Amino acid sequence: MRMRCLLSLNTCSTMESTRDELGLDRSQVKKAVHALQAYLKSTASSQKLFMNEGQPISLLFTLWKIPKKEQTVRIPLPNGLRTESGEVCLFTRDEPNMTSEQTEKFYKKLLSERAVKNVTEVIPFKVLRTEYKPFEAKRRLLANFDLFLADARIRRRLPSHIGKHFYERKKSPLSVDLESKHLARDMERLIQGTTLCVSKKGSCCMARVAHSGMTADEIVENVVTAVSTISTKLETKGKNIKIIHLKSPTSVALPIYTSDLSHLALIEEAQKKANLSKQAQKRKVENVKKVVSEKIPKEMEAENNSEEEIPQLVPIEMPTKKPKQEEIPRKGLQVPKPAAGKVKKIGKEKKMAKKTKVTALGMKRKAKNK
């Protein structure tokens, strides 16, 4: 009966107490937290669920419109969700010129030097590929740890090696910059904080913000900070959050915030403005392209005309021909004439040589005839 009375009170819109940006009332949140704790105490004796400090308390968000893009919102919380007994696994890259054991020791030493105490296991990427390749090994790895962190340098390579069950159980590794100067602070925010995965397949999403071992004030602080960060970090413009419920895995969803119908009109106006701005940007780009496409042929024609009309200011030097050799006149070459007596002697010698040849031929013929 007590739960039903509180539920009827929570559905009403509250305007009396102090509010944050979204219009969340702390008094209504506190009433819902007390009702949830009373329910968990009543079920603890029979089902023994309250003894487990890991009993999660979550926020269920219902959106006015399904977002067009998937988004992961990281939420730092003032009161940590995990105790010292929580198991956290870190996937690291393979260091060059080091074996897998050496890389594991290297990163454990780095974490101890930076005062990071919550990481219980370090697994290099090579070990993940080889030792955790079978399906059963991946399931054991998923069950042994509450949270998985991954080096930002290998974050994109993990989905094909860890499998889909990490994402179905909402234990996908969160990326960490291991080269950061404030590594301890960043790791503490991730380990003690939470995340909200906004999908484009539906209008509901859930984020774990507390556990049953916390006090009522701690749960209220975590709820208020989570709602304020989510409302500011959502990519959808306008007040897209319709209803917020607080619940445990076995309890009824208790509404702590209900938006007005006017928010839907604001969201539609914001979407129209965004679409108009996109169309204006597209038109500007198209106009710029048209101007450029019109200028280019004109510039090409101007360049061609300028190339044809350029005056040759500097005369082009043609290669000089080789100088012709001076022809010696024939008249200049006068062969000396032999003397007349010598010419007669040369003629007599020629005649004697002919006669000797004739006589020799005649003697050969006579010898053959005989």
What does this structure look like?
The chain is of the alpha/beta class. It is 47% helix and 15% strand. The chain has helices spanning 2-10, 26-47, 100-113, 125-130, 135-144, 159-162, 165-168, 183-192, 216-233, 262-309, 340-369; strands at residues 56-63, 71-75, 88-92, 121-124, 147-151, 174-176, 194-198, 204-211, 241-247, 254-258. It has a 4-stranded antiparallel sheet with strand order 8-1-9-10. Strands 4-3-5-6 form a 4-stranded parallel sheet. Strands 2-7 form a two-stranded antiparallel ribbon.
Q: Tell me the series of helices and strands, N- to C-terminal.
A: HHEEEHEHHEHHEHEEHEEHH
**Fraction of residues in β-strands:** 5-15%
Intertermini distance = 169 Å
Largest sheet: 4 strands, antiparallel
Low-confidence segments: 1-20
Output the radius of gyration. 49 Å
Task: Please give the structural blueprint.
Layout: H1 2-10, H2 26-47, E1 56-63, E2 71-75, E3 88-92, H3 100-113, E4 121-124, H4 125-130, H5 135-144, E5 147-151, H6 159-162, H7 165-168, E6 174-176, H8 183-192, E7 194-198, E8 204-211, H9 216-233, E9 241-247, E10 254-258, H10 262-309, H11 340-369
Parallel strand pairs: 3-4, 3-5, 5-6
Antiparallel strand pairs: 1-8, 1-9, 2-7, 9-10
Helix pairs in contact: 1-2, 2-9
Descriptive keywords:
disordered N terminus; alpha/beta; four-stranded parallel sheet; about 375 residues
